Binding-protein-dependent transport systems inner membrane component
Amino acid sequence: MRETRMKSVVVYSLLLLFSLLFLAPFYWMITTAVKTPEELYLFPPKWIPSVFQWDNFAKAWQSQPFGTYLNNSLIVTGLSLIGQLLSSSLVAYGFARFHFRGKDALFLILLASMMIPWEVTMIPLYMEFNALGWINTLKPLIVPAWFGSPFFIFLLRQFIMGIPTELEEAARIDGANPVQIFLRLIVPLLRPALILVGVFHILSSWNDYLGPLIFLNDQTKYTLTLGLSQFRGMFGVDMVSIMAVTFLICLPPLAAFFLAQRYIVEGIATTGIKG
């Protein structure tokens, strides 16, 4: 019993140590955001400001049209999230439950596409969207999500493969067609995996910088990440304002992660590797 307690103490001590190491940069960002400019260059550095300057957040937010950037980010993240969940779940259901010629080959091609880095397709995508007249619009950041993501399709397919087929057979006997089975049976059971996919997509879309940088030219179309980059370029070493805006931008994805934490763990735990 004593040996078990000692092991637990050692394990939790190590976890606490590594947690503090990961939280230290985030803590430094918050404390920097509420410091006075004079306290930034003190040595040794002050971990706790003498006076908390809470108005730094309002000043930094109002120095640029971050309200417009926030609206653009919400539109891109929200619309692309709907398309990602709808398309990925439908394709995953098709690969998991329907039998057709060439299914294994198509699924292999789908998995192979995961190994192609986005930087390789960046120029062809720009040429394609330019031919469609979508450059300097939010469409290149939204429409591709409506065609699914290979990783999310694979993840949802593996989850569906773990659902007993007897449930669908019983629904089919009761007269349900494939669409009704998908909407009334599969989707409710997919909730943990869909929430997992949703959180992953929110983090990816919200923090995307390279996509808006390539496809957007007009400042009124900028997302928060691109606006923050311009903010840094304009104000140089104004670390107080940079950290204040960065902290505000981090809040929505952090809130989404913590609210869905239970479902994320459940989704990962219940997603098997059944082939």
Notes: The mean pLDDT is 86.
